[in-house]
């Protein structure tokens, strides 16, 4: 005789997959964790976005030196550590998909409909973020724009979800009956589930945080970039070959735009100017960061030599002919900062071509994408 699975048994087995689906408190604890981590991701993500696209009403300070390294580390490492938390939450609430009746009221229908953008959007953010830091782009859209706009959808849906759940969750801790059926859910204990999830999140954080927190660099087993690994002991994202840049013995730095004196400086001219040494990190938006010792001339010394207004802005242009990151803007707080250099040397040697030879920008508290390599021109313009 052939045993065919009976549909009702199959359905029951599928429902049981959500191990502690009946346990509202487990779901609530996981939800609180997700609320905290999505809030951190949302805020740090906005910081990163507006730093790269300054809105005019806000100028990011140049100090503390490592502030962006911290906010972006929280964004990326926190986001990675949230993956187990989100999976656990989905596993816990999954049996609700089959709740009966599916819709109890108009309010309930809206509440349930909102779960879709919340779940789909949260998965989208974590998966595309993960792919982005792994430099894996199987999708047809531009990651930063999609990740940015989806953040508003997810966070908006999350706020409404929290507002909807608030009364229920308070009831769970208020000594009142949670309102659910009195059956004990099957599967592991609440403590067991929460401890396992916390352990999984902690483990993900531990094997990735070393990509930005150098003392734990040795543990960064799952990080795509590691401090100290690369030419001149610093990672390289975009090589000179990829950027189409080669050595040019006739290179000169042009300083033009709103200046009283246009300048055209050779490498020897720059080397003849006062030399400064700074210790600053490259803090990439993709979460890795690494400190290095840079030497070169202060950007402000070059700008003062050309004669610029104190509130001027500067566009730094690269020799790179194409590419999204071939230019960056430097606002007054950053170019006035004494740590902001046109770097000529890295870790005691002249910059290698991959690190931006003959000259690159290095400034405190600024995303890596704005630390332009292979500088050809500084164009000064109004505020
Ligand atoms: N001209 C130019 N400068 C650039 C880039 C680039 O693509 N082109 N990449 C930036 C990025 S994304 C980072 S994180 C820093 C450090 O990258 P690197 O490791 O390639 O030096 O350089 C920045 N400077
Ligand atoms: Mo970067």
Q: In which range does the helix fraction lie?
A: 40-55%
Shape annotation: elongated
- The residue-averaged pLDDT reads 91
Radius of gyration based on Cα positions: 26 Å
Helix count equals 10
Q: Give helix and strand order, one letter per element, not per position.
A: HHHHHHHEEHEEHEEHEEEE
Present as ligands are: ligand MTE, molybdenum atom
User: In terms of per-residue confidence, which ranges show pLDDT below 50 for 5 or more consecutive residues?
Assistant: 177-183
Number of domains: 2
State the end-to-end distance.
Answer: 83 Å
* Total strand segments: 10
**Strand-residue proportion:** 5-15%
Largest sheet: number of strands, sense, barrel closure: 5 strands, mixed
Structural class: alpha+beta
What is the strand arrangement across the widest sheet? 2-1-10-5-6
Features:
383 residues; binds the ligand Nc1nc2c(c(=O)[nH]1)N[C@H]1C(S)=C(S)[C@@H](COP(=O)(O)O)O[C@H]1N2; 14% strand; alpha+beta; 10 strands; five-stranded mixed beta sheet; five-stranded antiparallel beta sheet; 10 helices; Sulfite Oxidase, Chain A, domain 2; 2 domains; binds molybdenum atom
